[in-house]
Amino acid sequence: MRGEGYAVGTIFALNGALYGSWFARVPDAANRTHSSPGVLGLTLLSVALGAISAMPFAGRLCARIDSRYVVIGAAALNCLSLPLISLATSPLTLALALALYGVCAGSTDVSMNTNAVAAIRRAGRPLMPLFHGAFSAGGMIGAATGGVVAGHVGLGRHFTITGVVGLGVLALAAGRLPTDPSLGEAGPEPGAARTARVRRFDGTLAVLGAVAFCSAVGEGAMGDWSALFMRDVLGTTAGLAAAGFAAFSLTMAAGRFAGTAVLLRLGPDRTLIAGCTLATAGTLAVVLAPVPVVALAGFAAVGAGLAYGFPIALNAAGAHPSGSGPAIGLVSTMGYTGFVAGPPAIGLVAQAADLRVGLGVVAVASVAGLLLAVTHRRLLREADPSRIAVPAGAADR
After folding, report:
1. What angle do CA 373, 375, 378 make, to 5 degrees?
2. Considering only Cβ atoms within 10 Å of each terminal Cβ, which end of the chain, N or C, has fewer?
3. Which of these CATH numbers, 3.10.20.30, 3.40.309.10, 3.30.1070.10, 1.20.1250.20, describes 201-397?
């Protein structure tokens, strides 16, 4: 992988670290704003609403100007918006700060994935899972750091230092981010044409968005419900309960770091089929687990199985004729919707039945992803930006 690939991976890790830093300090923000669990749950939706509202706009912006400039601007605003969260003193001001953070984070998410496609086209290799592995690693580093300093460093100082360090990391990576060769071959007015075409939401984007949605349902559910399942259903201690999500996160990160080799060997269609099958089996192991060790193995299997769905969908969106920016914006929006919708859906089912049945929602989503992969194998094989030739001279820009 060339220097520009490492630069893109650095941006992914930075975005993950900012998310992880926030997740680690949610309890402190709740205490500072005197938010009850119910109010906090509604307040946290502000991040998702901000991100979802910004993603299509960021995609269209990437179609008009070079995605690396959008990455730099969005990531800088993302670093600057994090300290604003610490200024919130009420649920309302926290919701506003989180909405702004969500806008910046969502814009960074779409633009960095669009820029990743430029790096993939230059490298001629399916690097998207590797980039998403960097995001997962960054998230774990941010969360671990936040957990260590939580009892010793105030929220404002922590987020300010994190934002400043993030700006420094961004400055180091910015100069090596790849240019978008598609802009050079499309003429002076490519953005408007591509944006107009992508509004005709075709079957390809519908399939890719559905794949992202199904994968994200499980990813969001594990973050919100794994520890509660271990503690309340299987009766573990709080420490062992956290191990469920740790097992999921570690295997997901490992799967994504190995994703390029897996995709080169199996192809995106077979990789997605195998991943959805493994995620389904892992979820069934969790919901039927008689003892914690079986559930831990199941969570690990779910993480490994879901490692590829979202990266494969975004990778394929990068080859869409409408332009990688608008297509990735739409697919990201659908995926993020699944990430947000999954946990509440599980809660509703668990309320009507129990949490074992509720987590079955993840199995249903994984089976749906499996069916999409089986019935659209040709689409997944052919929609690969690493097979698109870079225009002559573009690699030198």
Report:
1. 80
2. C
3. 1.20.1250.20
Cα atoms found within 13 Å of the Cα of residue 167, Cβ hemisphere only: 12
From the number of C-beta atoms within 10 Å of its C-beta (0-12, 13-18, 19+), residue 125 rates as middle
Name which of 130, 129, 182 is nearest 390 in CA terms: 182
Of 374, 373, 384, 375, residue with least CA distance to 263: 384
How far apart, in Å, do the first and last CA atoms of the chain sit? 18
Task: Give me 20's structure tokens.
Answer: 């992880």
Place of tokens 């779910």: 302
Residues 6+ apart with CB under 8 A from 157: none
pLDDT per residue as tens digits for the range 175-232 = 999 987 655 444 434 444 444 445 455 788 899 999 999 999 998 888 778 888 888 8
Structure tokens that stand for 319 in this block? 């080859």
Q: What is the DSSP string of 74-103?
A: HHHHHHHHHHHHTT--SHHHHHHHHHHHHH
Tell me the per-residue pLDDT of 117-175, one tens digit each, with 9 for 90 and over. Answer: 888 888 888 888 899 999 989 988 888 888 888 888 999 999 999 999 999 999 999 99
Distance CA 320, CA 203 (A): 11
Taking the domain 1-179, which CATH number applies?
A: 1.20.1250.20
The CA distances from residue 321 to 71, 121, 195, 359, 385, in Å, are 22, 14, 11, 37, 11
Q: How far is CA 175 from CA 5, 6, 126, 164, 292, in A?
A: 12, 12, 23, 18, 48
